[in-house]
Amino acid sequence: MSSKHESPDKKDVSGTHKRLSNLMHQAGNRYCADCGTPEPKWVSSSLGVFICIKCSGIHRSLGVHISKIASLKLDQWSDEQVDALEKLGGNTFLNKKYEACLPSNIKKPKPHTSIEERSEYIRKKYEELQFMMESDENSLCPFVPSQGRSVSLGPSSSSCYTYHIDNKKYEKALTRHHIGHAFRKSWTRKDSEHKCSKKSTSLAGMVEFVGLIKVNVRKGTHLAIRDVVTSDPYVILSLGHQSVKTRVIRNNLNPVWNESLMLSIPENIPPLKVLVYDKDTFSTDDFMGEAEIDIQPLVLAAIAYEKSTANESVQLEKFVESRDNTLVRDGVISLEDGKIKQEISVRLQNVERGVLEIELECVPLIQ
Ligand SMILES: [Zn+2]
């Protein structure tokens, strides 16, 4: 990796951190792009907007194919990711794009706007792109600039976006910013399901979240064969209405992903569903097993720890294999550097073989 930082004695990490911090302190980024709450701690790394915790929950429920949420504090940021974020232009620029044609009868959410209203607004803004300028038949928007005109509105925006954006460009931009082609393709089926069940997914945004769960999908062992002698496995995690997935690892029955994915925890704390699939280019992806993990004990331990004073000891639980769970090894909930974690080895179900190792970390939202 190249080092393009001022002083050689400084590590890359601190330079990256500094740049991220500078971005956070840009005037427009000091308030949530969607509701105006001060000091947002979250960002959509795919869209580029800095947002508050409440709005981040709704963004997550849109799915990572629309908005990929990262924590400005809790996630590790690489130089390249900060570059990509810088290029997206920040809240001021992006709100001019996504709210270019905001009708006067639609009120933008405020910090205390209800979750229903907030959700409706965010969906219209980023999923349906209702307030964006239309590219070709722009008859609906009174503020359309002349064809091909490009207006750069942000400090580093000119190379990345033209104000006059069309859907194809938008798709391209998404692809460029972390959402790979294979990933989008594999979501095609999900997208169509999504459309059919609009009603139920729109309810997803109305769920209150009690925390976040960071799932590190470590590795798979002795996975099932789906392509003659091997498989191209990837993992889908789903919690309530949200789902996220890992990258595909080609030709490997013992894949190592070491990929961290973040999900919001809905109030009713549903089980975390883990699904393994084999990526096929020309046909539907093949099923390679599944598992269901009860995350309630972890969430409750994290909340108990957060509520306790520093001197109090926290009772951390140990999970013993039982009739209805599929753990290969005991899943121990532990406290590491003030973080509540759980390491789990899970035997995949409804498949001939395969074990998955994952690590869970819970971040409660009691503030
Ligand atoms: Zn917000």
From TrEMBL:
Coiled coil feature spans: none
Domain named Arf-GAP: residues: 17-139
All copies of domain C2, residue ranges: 194-309
InterPro entries the UniProt entry points to: ARF_GAP_AGD11/12/13, ARFGAP/RecO, ArfGAP_dom, ArfGAP_dom_sf, C2_dom, C2_domain_sf
Keyword terms: Calcium, GTPase activation, Metal-binding, Zinc, Zinc-finger
SUPFAM superfamilies linked: ArfGap/RecO-like zinc finger (SSF57863), C2 domain (Calcium/lipid-binding domain, CaLB) (SSF49562)
UniProt-recorded Gene Ontology molecular function terms: GTPase activator activity; phospholipid binding; zinc ion binding
CDD domains attached to this UniProt entry: ArfGap, C2_ArfGAP
Organism: Medicago truncatula (Barrel medic)
Protein name: ADP-ribosylation factor GTPase-activating protein AGD10
Keyword Cell division: no
